[in-house]
Amino acid sequence: MEIQKPYLLFLGDVPDQLAAKTAHGIVDWRPEWCVGQLRLPGCKADCGLTDLDIAQAKAKGAKTLIVGVANAGGVLPEHWVGKLVEALDAGMDVATGLHRRLSSFPAIAEAARRNGRALHDVRIPDMEFATGKGTRRQGLRLLTVGTDCSVGKKYTALALEKEMRARGLQADFRATGQTGIFISGRGVAIDAVVSDFVAGAAEWLSPENAVDHWDLVEGQGSLFHPSFAGVTLGLLHGAQPDAFIVCHEPTRTKMRGVQHALPSIQAVIERTVLEGQLTNPGIQCTGLAINTEHLAEQEALGLMERLGRDHGLPCVDPIRTGVGPLVDELVRRFPVRG
């Protein structure tokens, strides 16, 4: 799948910033690929890009309209279809990470056909996976896990890749969601894989490699989330991580989209070790990544210092402080092996 650049990011009329996390992720890691954003009336998200209509974006060179949202159920609202058709008629391709195929909308399929444009459904796997086997394989793997959804698992894995490569380490980000695929150009939307094959897809995504090579696997959901724990568990078993980082948003009291209370960091560490030992008996937590976006500077720094001390682990905010201490810990615990 080759998605043509640059992008126009379509935000629709989503109700908050988190609902546009796909667009935000692209802007954070590939800003040079984005010409602007398109928002409908009532949209409560803003990526900080220039607001453009279809004609203006085309004039600026946009080649693909990216539906930059992640909503419950991965649906494309009917009242968005017209804008996607308009983009196709203007000569753009359209890409989405939602669950329903773009070609299943007759108006979109017809517009793509008459204009000779491509439709990209990055959340729908274009290959078949085997079931997970749980066989140990060479190489090192890290998985980001969370106390909840949308707490920074993807951002943390990407920040680790950037820092590790800057130090000359072998490291590759492995995308398991639509935003990561848009950023990296490769991956599998793990929540769209049939449940029996989730672990196998994760094994395919992080195959045997050099002894000192790190696969940094983007986590999904949470082992404690009643909606998504199954996906999280399959990914954990298939990735067979040697190390994991717990990601946490400290201002939440309930998990996103449900009424369940947020689990403690310690509970996440204990359950991840318990479940992860099935395929990697040596699994260990090597750090904490705290999303302190909603905290003032001193409050955030104080919280990270306390959490690090309480858990005996390096504790960072990948945006405020960087992930240097997390990489230091990985280098210490997993020295290069010849």
From TrEMBL:
Residues 129-327 form the D-glutamate N-acetyltransferase-like C-terminal domain. SUPFAM superfamilies: P-loop containing nucleoside triphosphate hydrolases. InterPro entries: DgcN-like, DgcN-like_C, DgcN-like_N, P-loop_NTPase. Residues 41-125 form the D-glutamate N-acetyltransferase-like N-terminal domain. PANTHER family: DUF1611 DOMAIN-CONTAINING PROTEIN, GLL3100 PROTEIN. This is DUF1611 domain-containing protein. It comes from Myxococcus landrumensis. The lineage of its organism: Bacteria, Pseudomonadati, Myxococcota, Myxococcia, Myxococcales.
